[in-house]
Amino acid sequence: MSSTSKLVYLSLLITFAVVIHTIESLLVIPIPVPGAKLGLANIITLLALMLYGFKSGMLVSVMRSTIGFLIVGNVVSFSLSISGAVFSTAVMGLAFVCYRKKWINILTVSILGAVSHNVAQIVMASFVVNQFHLITVYLPVLLLLAIPTGVFTGLSAMYLHKIIVKNITISHSISE
Amino acid sequence: MFSRYDILIWIIIVALALGGMFYYYNIASSGEHFVSISVNSIEFEPIPLTESNNNFRKEIEGINGLTIIEILDQRVRVISSACPDKLCVHSGWIDKPGQLLVCLPNKVVVRIISDEQQDIDFYTN
To answer: Which of A130, B15, B47, B54 has a CA between 20 and 30 Å from the CA of residue A67?
Structure first.
């Protein structure tokens, strides 16, 4: 695949991620835990990781946080979102190496991403308010919530990846 | 499709979560408990949930009228409230940190907090 098509597809992925991030920030989740999120934008990060590798995944997640900050965020939410994005992408990148070696499957990669996202966010949040018991209070709940959300984002990324790989080869074979 | 590493990682996460919850529950129930009352998101001074406040009643002026709460045997309930559906009255007693009694029409929120978690009121994005 040429670098121009990679550029276009990455820009599209960033756009999708920003849209998901924006819509998600408007949703009110009926769980009284700060930091509890569905993490739907992680679908796109994982997808970028599967399609183009670690650097692109990191680019997509950092750009998503930054542009999302310009649209809906404030400084506090940006610091939480960027720390979660960078740390979870780094962990998913490591886990993805294990996935390539067929040690773990893609759902586990996604769950590890969700877990590390929550860990980074709650640690950052307790730095912001300077209250470290926040971690003991909320981290267990967030860890448990990371399992269903991680499975959901993992399944979504898996099926999207299948569809995209199929359709990119189809469009290439038509144009050629 | 699921290798042994997958199962191991999932079990570790669930075990950490449940262990942490159990640990926190022990901390939360060991500290002193307070009754925190807020009307229209303005918070009052928390009332300690101790023997000295046994059989204690408080009238709270809400948006529509009075909400009366009762503290008895280190539990709290709403006795009467000036709201149409009385959901807060039907909620019954609460006695654990984190539990809530909410009267939405009257904008009254009664919750139990422990001294470990008094001023957590922070939302992330």
So the answer is: A130
Tell if the CB–CB gap between A141 and B17 is shorter than 8 Å.
Answer: yes
Other Cβ atoms closer than 10 A to A62: 16
Would you state the torsion angle of the CA atoms of residues A6, A7, A13, A16, taken in this order, to the nearest 10 degrees? -150
- Tell me the count of A-B CB pairs closer than 8 A: 81
Residues (pLDDT < 50) of chain B are: 118-125
Could you give phi then psi for residue B112, rounded to 5 degrees?
-100, 130
Q: Of A18, A109, A141, A1, which Cα lies nearest the Cα of A70?
A: A18
From residue A36, alpha-carbon distances to A11, A42, A62 in Å are 28, 14, 20
Cβ distance B14 to A137 less than 8 Å, yes or no, reads no
What is the pTM (predicted TM-score) of this model? 0.68
With beta carbons less than 8 A apart as the criterion, state whether A44 and A57 touch: no
Is the Cβ–Cβ distance between B122 and B50 less than 8 Å?
Answer: no
- Residue of A31, A101, A143, A147 for testing the chain B interface, max B β-carbons within 10 Å: A143
With CB atoms and an 8 Å threshold, state whether A105 touches B125.
Answer: no
ipTM: 0.76
- Other CB atoms within a 10 A radius of the CB of residue B19 amount to 12
- Which candidate, A130, A35, A137, places its Cα nearest to that of B31? A137
* Closest-CA residue of chain A to B98: A32
pLDDT in tens, B25-40: 776 666 678 888 888 7
Q: Do the chains contact at A73 and B23, CB–CB below 8 Å? A: no
